Amino acid sequence: MTLLGGLMFCGALRAESCPAWRPERLQLEITALKNQLERWDVAYYQQGDSLIEDQVYDSLRQKLQLWHRCAGLERVEEPSSLLPAGKTPHPVAHTGLHKLADPAAVDQWLRGRSDVWVQPKVDGVAITLVYRDGELAAAVSRGNGLQGENWLEKVRAIPAIPAAVKDAPATLILQGELFLMVNGHQQKIHGGINARSTVAGALMKNRLSPVLQQIGLFVWAWPDGPKEMTQRLQQLAAMGFPLALAYSQPVSSLDDVRQWRERWYREALPFVTDGVVIHQARSPQGRYWQAKPGDWAVAWKYPPVQQVARVNDVEFSVGRTGKIAVVLKLDPLRMDDKWVSRVNLGSLPRWRQWAVVPGDQVAISLMGNGIPRLDKVAWRTTERIEPSAPAADRYHALSCFTWLPECRQQFLARLVWLGGPQGLGLHGVSESTWQVLIDQGLVRHLLDWLVLTPEQLMSAPGIGDKRGRSIHRQFQLARQQPFARWLIALGVPLSLQQTQALKSWHQIRQLPVGEWRKMTGIGAKKAEQITGFLQHPPFLTLVSTLEAQEITGFVGTQ
User: Fold this and answer.
1) pTM of the predicted model, to two decimals?
2) Quick check: 145 and 90 in contact, CB under 8 A?
3) 88-301: which CATH number, 3.30.470.30, 1.25.10.10, 3.10.129.10, 3.40.47.10?
4) Average pLDDT rounded to a whole number, residues 153-166
5) Quick one: average pLDDT of 302-312?
6) What would the CATH number be for the domain defined by 399-548?
7) DSSP 386
8) 29, 297, 427, 498: which has the fewest Cβ within 10 Å?
9) What mean pLDDT is predicted for residues 411-422?
């Protein structure tokens, strides 16, 4: 979770529109989500327990802000009132960062600025450290930016933070990020791993947590320190704070910033990051800092590995073999370098297990091959209207060889398979072509296309003379395909290799179940599936049609 969540500018949020809900329902959803966020906030800020992933929480808080705007309500305040009642003042205020949305905003910010540096934006918990005469004297949580909790006892238990420093000014004030130390963390691959919440939980516990041994510190501000960045970084390293020197780079252009941002996004680092911070080396004197973003430093965040999107619809499709696939249609999300508006949920039982309905908010990430994946249902809408799903027992490997309204999807899928590269290889005959022929009533049975004339094809909407003749030629060439290809095209559950020894329908009819089991890759269950398919009356009707059309291998089947 983040205390600055309301300051974030999220590209995904821009792509989401106001939900098409009645005003009464919108208010109901706002109240429900607000109450849930408050329960998570109480657990996080007062008990040190994170009950939800950081990125999912941030996304849902942004959803609440969006819904407030949609309802014409005032902006939702951040949960600062739920913070432990810290009373320890910061000697210098914590300023926070403006978040830049895109390269254009970064380029504009850089114009006219000099002596600019970029650092990883370490994902952790902000803190102030105060050393007096070289000894650690105070450690204050960020709190509201002006005062926070006294964390001195816990910080003294963190080995990575020096208890004493040499060659430091009489009073040394540092601001930085307490982070979870990790080995070889690649942000693009591993994401946030809830590191921020782990650190926050350890610091908010009443007892000293073993996690304190795994916490490091990245110093990102030395108010009133040396004016030159190089000198500042070197002195920090000499005092025992080396990370800023190792991970600070001078930049002068958008390309420079982009290069380091991309590099740190992909390469192994010792901490979790969520973007980069771009600093001007010089900043105002610390006494002028305020608990709001300054203009001398900004953040350019990474696209979150996991994002939350609203489900607009649940789409069901019946495939060639009768399997029902479920796809969630989403508000568009920008993830990595692509827009995501759909996620495949898998089978009907899997959808029922997830129990997703339109209006739900789901957490989405990209798998290694860039395919969207549903990670969790982040928020369930209060008004749950379950879409009507196809009857699972209606569709199977032996259903829908003929067009019927309820067979629309499976019948079309059979035609697409039949004409595809694994079937008869009908070049230029796509799914949309088959759909036109179905819509015009020209194809009602799986093999009706065999007897279509060029004139019938040319008269179909969107086909025309030239394409109609080309399609007719493909249909005629299909007659010359070998018997094995026809078996595959019709959907017989055999591989092309398994069909090579089969030369005619007459031969197949003579094969008992035991002979099928002798073939490579065919067991008892598979043999029963094959014989059941070959004896199915609608399939036998197709065989009769092919015999009447004198297709090789089917002639003389009676």
Assistant:
1) 0.75
2) yes
3) 3.30.470.30
4) 97
5) 89
6) 1.10.150.20
7) P
8) 427
9) 97
Q: What is the pLDDT of residues 425-439, one digit of tens each?
A: 999 999 999 999 999
Checking DSSP bridges between strand 249-251 and strand 273-280, what pairing results, if any? unpaired
Question: Other CB atoms closer than 10 Å to residue 288's CB: what's the count?
Answer: 11
Distance CA 519, CA 504 (A): 17
Band of residue 284 on the pLDDT scale cut at 50, 70, 90? very high
pLDDT at 63: 92
CB-based burial, 430-462: b 16+ in 10 Å, e otherwise: eeebbbbbbeeebbeebbbbbebebebbbebee
pLDDT recorded at residue 460: 95
Among residues 303, 300, 254, 304, the alpha carbon closest in space to that of 277 is found at 300
Place of tokens 């105060």: 130
- pLDDT tens per residue, range 184-220: 999 988 888 889 889 988 998 888 999 999 999 999 9
Distance CA 189, CA 176 (A): 25
Domain 5-82 has CATH 1.20.81: no
For the stretch 100-106, contacts whose Cβ atoms lie closer than 8 Å and that sit 24 or more positions apart, written own/partner, are: 100/9, 100/298, 100/299, 100/300, 101/9, 101/11, 101/14, 102/11, 103/254, 103/258, 106/254, 106/257, 106/258, 106/278, 106/298, 106/300
**Residues with catalytic function:** 121
Question: To the nearest whole percent, how much of the chain has pLDDT over 90?
Answer: 79
Separation of alpha carbons 159 and 153, rounded Å: 12
In the DSSP assignment, the letter for residue 387 is P
Contact 154, 208 (CB under 8 A): yes
Closest to 430 (Cα-Cα) out of 439, 442, 417, 440 = 417
